[in-house]
């Protein structure tokens, strides 16, 4: 496989991806706290980041983060109670947040137990309370995104109206193509406030979506998210395992 482009880091497998992602979180949060005095880290949902969260919870790495200067938010949530196995926040808490000294008031969870529209309004207010990058857009120093096989990210699915929302930071999603059907998601307008975006993908099933997003299919939600970050002067890194990268390596 040829040398990956500069914005792509390819590692051997899912375990190496977890290690690389966890170490990147420590480094990116350090830079962000250094620059602004505090930082907001927006977690991604799904299964791909869980091993990295667990790796970061291990003592040798978690000590590298100034948790009292970090706010942890989440990019999207399924409308289930936090104790439900499908809860993105619940899974991230079990893997990481329950094991680090992050102050309670700096845990910015989407209230998945509420109806989607109310939870979206609630989180719009939460994001509205963060330091701004530009007028009305919160500064999100470190953001992680997973990728779906169809090229979705957050709960923004291809061809859906939520992808086009520009007048809100957070939207409710109903009848989502990936269960559960009711969800709450950051919008591409919120993504414009991202300073450092890390897109994580592992496994051959993601290769086509990654290749498409980095090449022939700039309309895919994850491609548009990456473009929005770059357009606002942020940096984008794709952290891929070899199986997810194989198709992508040859494009761009
Ligand atoms: C969700 C996620 C979603 C996820 C992708 C990839 O709530 O489902 O936030 O955007 O990141 O679907 O999911 P996997 O990592 O499980 O493949």
Structure overview:
With 252 residues, the chain is an alpha/beta fold. Helix content is 33%, strand content 21%. The chain contains nine helices and eleven strands. It has helices spanning 14-36, 50-57, 59-62, 88-95, 116-128, 188-191, 207-213, 221-231, 242-245; strands spanning 8-11, 39-43, 70-74, 76-78, 132-134, 137-138, 140-146, 170-173, 183-186, 194-201, 235-241. The strands form three sheets. It has a six-stranded parallel beta sheet. Helix 1 crosses helix 2 (50-57). The longest helix is centred in the N-terminal third of the chain and has 23 residues, at 14-36. The radius of gyration is 17 Å and the shape is globular. The model has no long low-confidence stretch (mean pLDDT 96). Bound molecules: 6-phosphogluconic acid. 6-phosphogluconic acid binds next to strand 4. 6-phosphogluconic acid binds at residues 44-48, 76, 78, 88, 146-148, 152-155, 178.
């Amino acid at each position: 496989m040829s040398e990956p482009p500069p914005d792509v880091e390819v590692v051997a497998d899912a375990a190496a991806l977890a290690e690389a992602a966890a170490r990147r979180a420590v480094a990116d949060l350090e830079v962000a706290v250094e620059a602004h005095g505090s930082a907001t880290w927006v977690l991604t949902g799904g299964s791909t980041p869980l091993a990295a969260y667990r790796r970061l919870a291990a003592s040798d790495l978690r000590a590298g983060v100034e948790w009292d200067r970090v706010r942890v938010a989440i990019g999207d949530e399924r409308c289930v109670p936090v104790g439900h196995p499908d809860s993105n926040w619940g899974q991230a808490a079990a893997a990481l947040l329950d094991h680090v000294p992050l102050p309670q008031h700096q845990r910015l969870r989407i209230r998945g137990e509420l109806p989607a529209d109310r939870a979206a309004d609630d989180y719009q207010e939460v994001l509205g309370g963060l330091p701004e990058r530009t007028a009305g857009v919160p500064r999100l120093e470190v953001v992680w995104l997973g990728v779906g096989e169809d090229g979705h990210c957050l709960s923004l699915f291809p061809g859906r109206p939520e992808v086009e929302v520009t007048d809100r930071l957070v939207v409710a999603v109903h009848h989502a193509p990936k269960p559960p059907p009711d969800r709450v998601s950051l919008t591409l307008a919120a993504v414009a406030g991202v300073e450092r975006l890390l897109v994580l993908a592992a496994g051959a099933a993601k290769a086509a979506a990654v290749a498409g997003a980095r090449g022939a299919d700039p309309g895919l939600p994850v491609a548009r998210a990456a473009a929005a970050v770059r357009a606002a002067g942020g940096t984008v890194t794709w952290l891929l395992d070899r199986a997810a990268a194989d198709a992508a390596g040859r494009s761009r």
